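Tokens for chain A. Residues wanted.
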């Protein structure tokens, strides 16, 4: 039986000091482990550019889904199909997504450029590592969702140092995202373990995402501007306010002990490790 592990990046971070996923995968292939490891990301399953534009046009008044990021902006049928194929060790093509395409709006890479694993004369996969900022999140029931939203609105109106984005979202917009999140259980339920990277201050996401995009622009020659990055993060930040508390308590209700929470400082050093 192979292990599927999820690195749930919270907030989204392209690099954590001493915890780079590609380096971990290389180490696992060496002695004493000798595990043939495949690394992929939930980002690889974003909708095509045309499909994302169609989604945005269908719900033009919902700012949370005008660009990729939130639940509803991934091709879940493709994701479930790929993960199931990997678990069964069948020949599998691994999707890829180019975030620099269309001036940072992104586009799925053409299928003839996808990597193939478990093919003829290839060693079968032993371990799959799936990165994903929203994997492990579980949808809330409507009364709880409404309570979180009202609490954020109250904190904003009373001027108690509120720095989130939930209070600036309409209730119907976050209800749409919450309902879409229910389908992501089809991925989370396939995971055998979860390593959850949790920032000491959730506002670090803005700094880390700016750094990520700067690296992308340098490597690809195109990408989002700093203002576009700021607006991009604003679009998915409400999910951190809604779904983080439950994730910290454990993504697997009947499998306690299968989750690690790594608390990160601003420089991405691991400050604390908690088994959940």
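Reply:
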């Amino acid at each position: 039986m192979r292990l599927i592990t999820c690195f749930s990046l919270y907030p989204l971070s392209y690099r954590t000091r001493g915890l780079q996923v590609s380096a971990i995968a290389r180490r696992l292939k060496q002695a004493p482990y000798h595990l043939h490891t495949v690394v992929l990301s939930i980002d690889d399953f974003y909708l095509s550019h045309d499909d994302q534009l169609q989604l945005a046009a269908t719900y033009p008044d919902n700012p949370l889904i005008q660009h990729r990021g939130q639940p509803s902006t991934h091709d879940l049928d493709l994701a479930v199909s790929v993960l199931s194929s990997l678990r069964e060790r069948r020949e599998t093509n691994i999707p890829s997504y180019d975030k620099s395409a269309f001036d940072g709006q992104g586009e799925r890479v053409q299928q003839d450029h996808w990597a193939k694993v478990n093919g003829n004369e290839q060693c079968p996969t032993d371990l799959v590592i799936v990165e994903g900022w929203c994997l492990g999140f579980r949808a809330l029931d409507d009364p709880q969702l409404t309570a979180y939203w009202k609490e954020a609105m109250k904190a904003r109106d009373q001027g108690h140092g509120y720095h989130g984005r939930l209070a600036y979202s309409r209730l119907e917009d976050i209800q749409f995202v919450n309902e879409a999140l229910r389908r992501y259980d089809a991925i989370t339920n396939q995971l055998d373990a979860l390593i959850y990277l949790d920032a000491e201050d959730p506002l670090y996401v803005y700094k880390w995402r700016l750094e990520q995009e700067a690296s992308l622009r340098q490597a690809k020659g195109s990408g989002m501007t700093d203002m576009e990055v700021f607006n991009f993060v604003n679009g998915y930040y409400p999910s951190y306010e809604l779904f983080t508390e439950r994730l910290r308590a454990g993504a697997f209700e009947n499998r306690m002990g299968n989750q690690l929470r790594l608390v990160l400082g601003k420089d991405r050093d691991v400050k604390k490790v908690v088994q959940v």
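Strands lie at 3-9, 37-41, 92-94, 97-98, 107-108, 115-117, 127-131, 193-199, 259-264, 270-275. The mean pLDDT is 88.
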